[in-house]
Amino acid sequence: QVQLVQSGAEVKKSGASVKVSCKASGYMFSAYHVHWVRQAPGQGLEWMGWINSDSGATKYTQKFQGRVTVTRDTSITTVYMEVSSLRFDDTAVYYCVRISRGNFWFDAWGQGTLVTVSS
Amino acid sequence: QSALTQPASVSGSPGQSITISCTGTSSDVESYNLVSWYQQHPGNAPKLMIYDDTKRPSGISSRFSGSKSGNTASLTISGLQAEDEADYYCFSYADSSIWVFGGGTKLTV
Q1: Percentage with pLDDT > 70 across chain A
Q2: Which of A100, A36, A61 minimizes the C-alpha distance to B95?
């Protein structure tokens, strides 16, 4: 079955970086793009950016330009999302999410990864 | 790209109908028939309820329907049930390969 399995919870210091992985299985990796969405505690969903699983092209919302990097390793069908220069307000659950090529809605979600930024 | 505008909360009694609005701009909601809606219960990942403005995925109750007029999309839930109590988010494609969420609406039944 379709699965997006994310890496475990992280605790990082302010100013550090964190890299979250998302292992895809159960489907043709290149046929679906992967997006990243985050949710701060008690807050709403926030779209961060996405990667074309086939070409590797990326796009980020302006807020995260220069601070978020999404990459993929097609050999192990895994997508990575790295956030640098972490701030306290980056504390959130980070989700990887799948969109089929040609579609515009999320049809599968990872389980989420809690990233906590502390002093 | 600014977030789409949703009411912070709506409420209704069992059996009633409610509508949640999602207001965007000419760069997103108005220009594309690509609004989707997600339901999120506490502690869970969101679940797709409506896509492409009005389409319902298989397995989603016909009590859920989507519509759009101009720059405002809407989610209507008829015959409210206790299990519909959740947070609801709209989501739209915008220009230049960017997507945007609404701020979310807490539905109380």
Answers
A1: 100
A2: A61
